[in-house]
What we know:
This protein is of the alpha/beta class. It contains four helices and ten strands, in the order βαββββββαβββαα. The chain has a three-stranded antiparallel β-sheet, with no helix packed on it. Strands 8-9-10 form a three-stranded antiparallel β-sheet, sandwiched between helices. A two-stranded parallel ribbon has the order 1-2.
Amino acid sequence: MSVHLIEAAPRLLSTMSKEASKKATEFLTTMGVQIWLDTMVNDFNGEEVKTNTKHLPSKTLIWAAGVQGAPVAGIGFNKQKRISTNEFFNADGHDNIFSIGDLAVIKTETLKNGYPMLASVACQQGVHLAKNFKRMLLKKPVVPFSYNDQGTMATVGRNRAVVDLPHYKFQGRIAWYIWMFVHLILLVGFRNKVVAIVNWVWSYINYDSGIRLIIRPFKRKVKQRNLPEAIGV
Length: 233
């Protein structure tokens, strides 16, 4: 089996540092993954993945390129199907329509494509918009949004990860430990933390990577056989 990773950007993890991108590429290449940069998927017919540069025979396609918004009349979308907003989350030309998270793009002087589509960005935007709603109800001026970048992390496999913190960068095993620690402390409740630790230790020792798929239950059809009737004695 061969694994192909298709990336439309000129480098992997384009929202992270160049060091993290380079190290992630090294990790994946060492694992045997074939990487195609500056490549966009145009179509998949169940037998072949068609891109703007080549066609790759495949019967399995995993789409992990984010989300797109459904067009709405009167609301402006950019090329990535994201709603263009100002720094107060107002959709262009609308004072009573707001958009945050992956669906919104706030362009700044340093970020031409807006903030990265990350959960941390969406969480901060949600809290900020709620505070602005309160200020609007109190007839106070609203405050523009400013993202507080506390770091970005990505896991690339067993003992492999990349971490970009505001003042430090880590790659490899230590980054993997940091990634696990941060995800652990973000879990809600002591019981969830303990269960996560036990599952991680068990999976690490036994190399058990459970398949996290949601499938529908099905009933197997059993062919009925014409059996002779039982004779009672």
